[in-house]
Amino acid sequence: MLLSTLDWLFIIAFFLISLFIGIVVARRSGKNAKNFFLSGRNMPWWILGVSMVATTFAADTPGLVAGIVRKDGVYGNWIWWSFLLTGMLTVFFYAKLWRKSNITTDLEFYELRYSGKSAAFLRGFRALYLGVFFNIVIMASVCLAAIKIGHVMFNFAAWETLVIASLVTVTYSMLGGLQGVLITDFVQFIIAMVGSVWASIYIVNLPEVGGLSALLSNPEVSKNTHLLPDFSKPELFIPLLIIPLAVQWWSVWYPGAEPGGGGYIAQRMLAAKNEKHAVWATMFFNLAHYAIRPWPWILIGLASIVVFPDLASLQNAFPNLDSSFVKDDLSYSAMLTYLPSGLLGIVATSLIAAFMSTISTHLNWGSSYVVNDFYARFVNQEASEKKKVAVGRIATFLMMITAGLLSLILEEARDAFNLLLQIGAGTGLLFILRWFWLRINPYSEIAAMLSSFLIAIFFFINSKLEQPLITWESHWELVFGVVFTTIVWVVTTLLTQPSNEETLANFQNLVFDKEGKFHYFNYKVLAFFTGTIGIYAILFGTGFWIYAEITSAIIAYLIASVCSLFIWKNWNKIV
């Protein structure tokens, strides 16, 4: 397809704005590592909350959601909607604790909470494991989406997409640090939301689709619109609803939805002005991420069923695209080819913005681990602040190149999603309990990390064999990983000694209020449940409104209002 001059002007203008922001803040961000990785620790909640949302709107996210809708129906999204429980746990139990810890990265937590050489080893190893290996896998999945979008919308080869999209992202990430990322995220979020909402309205009203009523009444579409799976079919509701809600949310470490907080979510909480700003930022993120943003992507996924009913039709539409890339997640970018000039430019810019937002965050987050938790801790403890920033910029550049190369191997966004879930399976409960169960020690974490990783690698290799040794569905592999890993780290915890009493006492005095770590615990538990119910009510209410089920929508919004009122009235006790 060909973009008009107007479309290209939108894209070029966005690139220039992003570079301008990076250049403007480069001097301040380059002064020291704290400015580069935490923006001076003085950011307001709305900037941080929007940045969290922008980061989780990766270039692969719309395609992932559209692919899920095509394969499993709207209710298939419970595989990630279930992580709302993880998010609300972070809001009411952990956001305040993270900010009070006053550390630079969440990995620094290890030497705050644990003692001895094992704590130092764990910090250094996780810096490379998460900051480099795990981080590159995530970025590769985002780059894969960019490759597909680049071919469909710009007719670019894979390498052309990676070079063009990555060049600007790496440049402003290397220059501006976290502050540049946060400011650019704010601009990117506005563009991304305007683009996705406007595109969904236009696409639903295409002659091929026939409007919202025609879309929802289409027999092939209507069977995919249910918010809950058919409970008479265990092959649907067990993997898509029961396991995510009963097991996955508390047991699996996944970027952006880490049990107990972590990763780039923790990085933004640590950059907040104070504890209340950290809590508000995380609350806004969960509201926007789960309740507000999904429906435009869902509608485009449903519309794609009408226009591209199967993979063969997608392949016919893009005959020059390698067949290995033709999966259901291609449907989102395929539908965007129907957009008119001008709107196409805005939507293309929004997808570029989504790519850049996610990649820039992961680059800054990953390099913060490399610098703060590996280089400055173990390689050169006397490194100057400028030296740390320089190493961070080099790490940023190298990680981008590696992620781009890995993206050429992956085939579908969901492949990476499932692999990341399996790698983190069984570690989540440990991250939840380690703040409160003082017997947990570095060996607990090492055991959990190694066992979950080895199981994930086994199942991954097993799936590639012509005659697999085990033929389980992916959700049963996940459950096995959770059970086995949990048993391993709990037994390890009971067989090894906790950290020394002085370290534990200092940790508790730093992060918990003087009234004790279970102060107002009952209110926090109630807030967790009401917050979760309230956001799900908004999510469902919007769906009911789109489906023209007005009575159900009103009831859902009333439930959300009651939940919001409870949290507002008890805010001081909760926070």
Outline: globular
Report the sheet-strand fraction. under 5%
Q: Number of DSSP strands?
A: 0
The average pLDDT value, as a whole number, equals 84
Approximate helicity band: over 70%
Rg value: 23 Å
Poorly predicted residue ranges:
none
Question: Span from first to last CA?
Answer: 52 Å
Question: Which sheet architecture does the biggest sheet show?
Answer: none
Structural class, from secondary structure content? mainly alpha
Outline of the structure:
With 575 residues, the protein is an all-alpha fold.
Word description of this protein:
This protein is about 75% helix and about 0% strand. It is mostly helical and about 575 residues long. The chain is built from 27 helices and no strands. Helix 1 runs parallel beside helix 18 and helix 8 crosses helix 19 (about 385-405).
Write the layout of secondary structure elements.
Layout: H1 5-29, H2 33-38, H3 45-56, H4 60-72, H5 78-81, H6 84-101, H7 109-113, H8 117-154, H9 158-204, H10 212-217, H11 219-222, H12 234-251, H13 263-270, H14 275-292, H15 294-307, H16 311-317, H17 331-336, H18 343-379, H19 385-407, H20 413-424, H21 428-433, H22 442-464, H23 474-495, H24 501-511, H25 521-546, H26 550-569, H27 571-574
Helix pairs in contact: 1-9, 1-18, 3-9, 3-13, 3-14, 3-18, 4-15, 6-14, 6-25, 8-9, 8-18, 8-19, 8-20, 9-15, 9-18, 9-19, 12-23, 13-14, 14-25, 18-19, 20-22, 22-23, 25-26
